């Protein structure tokens, strides 16, 4: 049997066992879901039957994702706002429950970089990364505790999960990213602790550590893409020194698969960890890197 035939057979088996989708009827909260990996997660989860809460700092872009999901027959709502705001976690979970009645999955994807060499990094620059990548996910998870840590036997058997997004920077460190690498390493510790504390309630918690995925964070910094947080503009991307980097295989010798990943491929890793296919996986860090770093 060819690889393609085998793939089609497996897909057919999955469709038969989950005819309405891997996440049919389940409620998924995805932060940073207006673009990039978060957007791809929202669209993919909706295609697999989930009711999706599209959360993002940019409410207008988030609404476009919701509109796209609805046009394809799915269910979704927007909850816009800054994940670092003191009241955001409460707002996010309250509006999720008001719209869909409960919470089954949380994907803490919102984040960005703010790079500087360690000796020039300010306290504010360092602490901002911790607020976005550590404090915000912690508050969102804690706020969802009444819905995820349910003692109801029916809920205990339901598919419930948390996926926190990390990075290879959190596993190996990275020059110019003391703040980001520290925060992304913290994500792994947070996830493992949640897995241990909430596992008895049937809740799985996993981390996905991305490598080079084609998003705003990995494009050329010279393109001028920015994000505004607390009234301050932060430049996104990686400095290239004016050099153009193409997508030819020889351009990525550090990645065994010889190319960056796409947002859609990244989203599939997240879907896997949230789906029943990962029913006995918890406390794990899934490296989605094309082999980078092995």
Describe this structure in words.
Its EC number is 1.1.1.100. By secondary structure, the chain is α/β, with parallel strands linked by helices. The chain has a single domain, classed as NAD(P)-binding Rossmann-like Domain (Rossmann fold, 3-Layer(aba) Sandwich), CATH 3.40.50.720. The chain is 41% helix and 17% strand. The strands form two sheets. Strands 3-2-1-4-5-6-9 form a seven-stranded parallel β-sheet, with helices on both faces. A two-stranded antiparallel ribbon has the order 7-8. Helix 3 links the parallel strand 2 and strand 3. Helix 2 packs across helix 10 and helix 5 runs parallel beside helix 9. It starts with a helix and ends in a 6-residue tail after the last strand. The model has no long low-confidence stretch (mean pLDDT 89).
Question: Which descriptors apply to this entry?
Answer:
294 residues, alpha/beta, Rossmann fold, 7-stranded parallel β-sheet, 10 helices, 9 strands, globular, SDR, 3-oxoacyl-[acyl-carrier-protein] reductase (NADPH) activity, 3-oxoacyl-[acyl-carrier-protein] reductase, EC 1.1.1.100, SDR_fam
């Amino acid at each position: 049997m060819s690889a393609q035939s085998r793939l089609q057979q497996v897909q057919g088996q999955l469709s038969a066992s989950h005819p309405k989708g891997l996440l049919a009827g389940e409620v998924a909260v995805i932060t940073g879901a207006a673009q990039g990996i978060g957007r791809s997660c929202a669209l993919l989860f909706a295609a697999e039957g989930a009711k999706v809460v599209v959360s993002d700092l940019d409410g207008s872009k988030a609404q476009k994702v919701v509109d796209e999901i609805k046009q394809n027959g799915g269910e979704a709502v927007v909850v816009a706002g800054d994940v670092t705001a003191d009241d955001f976690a409460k707002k996010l979970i309250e509006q999720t429950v008001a719209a869909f009645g409960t919470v089954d999955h949380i994907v803490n994807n919102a984040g960005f970089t703010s790079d500087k060499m360690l000796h020039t990094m300010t306290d504010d620059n360092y602490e901002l990364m911790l607020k976005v990548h550590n404090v915000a996910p912690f508050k969102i998870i804690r706020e969802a505790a009444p819905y995820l840590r349910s003692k109801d036997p029916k809920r205990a058997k339901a598919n419930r999960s948390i996926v926190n997004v990390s990075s290879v920077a959190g596993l190996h460190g990275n020059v110019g990213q003391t703040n980001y690498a520290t925060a992304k390493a913290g994500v792994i510790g947070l996830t493992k602790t949640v897995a241990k504390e909430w596992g008895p309630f049937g809740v799985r918690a996993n981390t996905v550590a991305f490598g080079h995925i084609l998003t705003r964070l990995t494009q050329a910094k010279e393109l001028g893409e920015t994000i505004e947080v607390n009234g301050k503009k932060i430049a996104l991307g990686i400095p290239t020194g004016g050099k153009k980097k193409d997508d030819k295989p020889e351009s990525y010798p550090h990645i065994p698969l010889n190319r960056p990943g796409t947002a859609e491929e990244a989203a599939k890793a997240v879907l896997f960890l949230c789906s029943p296919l990962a029913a006995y996986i918890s406390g794990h860090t899934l490296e989605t890197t094309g082999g980078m770093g092995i």
